[in-house]
Specification:
Layout lengths: L4 H17 L10 E3 L1 H14 L2 H11 L3 H16 L4 E10 L6 H5 L6 E4 L3 H15 L17 E12 L5 E5 L11 E8 L5 E6 L2 E8 L5 E8 L5 H12 L5 E3 L6 E4 L2 E8 L6 E7 L1 E8 L34 E9 L3 E10 L11 E9 L4 E7 L5 E7 L13
Parallel strand pairs: 2-3, 13-17
Antiparallel strand pairs: 1-19, 2-4, 4-16, 5-6, 6-13, 7-8, 7-10, 8-9, 9-18, 11-12, 12-17, 14-15, 15-16, 18-19
Helix pairs in contact: 1-7, 2-3, 2-4
Length: about 400
């Protein structure tokens, strides 16, 4: 199933807005990770059943008219479900006493509807099992608050795995400056002749170096290093802007000599034989996990009105029962290593030798070093849909048994 550019832009715009609202410090020293692609379809289905001010706020957060939201959500779910390396699912659970509008329920996947029994422990166990199954164990619990007032749970799960087309090599790395100075971290290194994998974008907030790490199944990860002083939100929003082609980018083959961007240098080096220009990349392995309460940023998601308890309810298109949003949470995880990347999110509402000959030739080397906190976007290469985004504050430590040479 194809997904329209309008839907992709709308979902990616939510990534940029959420990045501006979430600070890495909210989730501790380890950074953060989140998936707007996991939230957007849920907001769309809620907008389809909403009324009044709640409907208008949800439509504004979606970036699409409310009457187009459900179709766009189905389109997005169908497209993500067909992407190699990506598993996505939607789930709906209701109390037996909650009668849903036939039109609204029919718009959801037929296999999505389950039942809330009223036994909080049993219901929580069933929801947790769904989260584990749908993410291959990357997320072990459904991020939802269940109590006697919970009438309905609407949830999404997203899990992606990709193996690098060109793996990295692991080694101990001790950055010489910055917040990781003096630490022994698990460094990742690789060298190639594909200079177009790196580029420098000129954005209103500052220059950003973007490295494209390509995976199989068309799932890629873009590493983003901004100028010192740029916030995580500015760097991640710049990454989305690069995807949308809103910022000019100077690609690796066109970079001049010298210090050309954050963590990026182009130099002339002696070589023992004729060699083409090369790209040398050094970065770090990382694992980040985060739990988000979406209601902490209710205005970003268009939930300001919808979280207020009132009669009549905010969602007349879902059913007669006066529903409101009691909780909205997401649990997310991302891991970047030498051989690949994996990430998941569940959202619920309720990195030598001797005898070398004398160098006779000169070659050009583009050197990139991600040696301080940086952002990342995991995306589908062809549609440019951002599936997960995050910020790396604390790289994986180096252990002796991890060195591969």
């Amino acid at each position: 199933m194809r997904v329209t550019n309008a839907t992709i832009r709308a979902a990616n715009a939510l990534t940029a807005r959420w990045a501006g609202a979430v600070r890495a410090s909210e989730d501790g020293a380890g950074g953060t990770v989140f998936s707007a692609a996991g939230v957007w379809p849920l907001l769309a289905f809620l907008a389809d059943g909403a009324g009044g001010a709640a409907k208008a706020e949800l439509a504004d957060a979606l970036g699409l008219p409310a009457d187009q939201a459900a179709d766009a959500a189905r389109e997005l779910l169908g497209a993500t479900g067909a992407m190699r390396g990506l598993d996505s699912a939607l789930g709906l659970w209701t109390k037996r006493t909650l009668e849903l509008r036939e039109r609204w329920e029919a718009g959801l996947p037929a296999e999505a509807h389950g039942v809330l029994t009223g036994d909080a422990a049993a219901d929580k166990a069933a929801l947790d099992a769904w989260a584990v199954k749908r993410t291959g164990g990357l997320i072990d619990a459904m991020p939802v608050l269940l109590d006697e007032d919970t009438e309905m749970v609407l949830a999404s799960a997203l899990a992606l795995r990709t193996a690098w087309l060109q793996p990295f090599r692991e080694s101990c790395w001790m950055p010489e400056a910055g917040p990781w100075s003096g630490r022994e971290v698990l460094g990742l290194w690789r060298k190639s002749t594909l200079l177009d994998r790196i580029g420098v974008a000129d954005t209103p907030q500052g220059h950003v170096t973007e490295l494209k790490v390509l995976g199989d199944g068309a799932i890629d990860v873009h590493l983003l290093l901004g100028e010192e002083g740029m916030t995580p939100g500015q760097v991640l929003a710049a990454g989305v802007g690069i995807l949308d082609r809103r910022h000019p980018v100077v690609a690796g083959p066109r970079l001049p000599y010298g210090d050309v961007g954050p963590g990026l240098w182009v130099v002339k080096e002696r070589a023992t034989s004729p060699e083409p220009p090369t790209l040398e990349v050094r970065t770090v392995a990382y694992a980040v996990r985060a739990d988000h309460d979406l209601l902490d940023h209710h205005e970003v998601f268009g939930l300001t009105t919808a979280l207020r308890e009132q009669r009549p309810g905010h969602f007349p298109g879902i059913g007669d029962f006066p529903l409101y949003v009691g909780s909205a949470r997401q649990s997310a995880v991302a891991r970047f290593g030498a051989r690949g990347f994996e990430a998941a999110a569940v959202t619920a509402f309720g990195m030598a030798g001797a005898g070398m000959p004398k160098p006779r030739w000169v070659t050009t080397t583009v050197k990139a070093g991600f040696d301080r906190p940086f952002g990342f976007l995991a995306l589908h290469r062809h549609t440019r849909l951002v599936l997960a985004a995050g910020w790396v504050m604390d790289p994986e430590p180096f252990r002796e048994d991890e060195e591969d040479y």
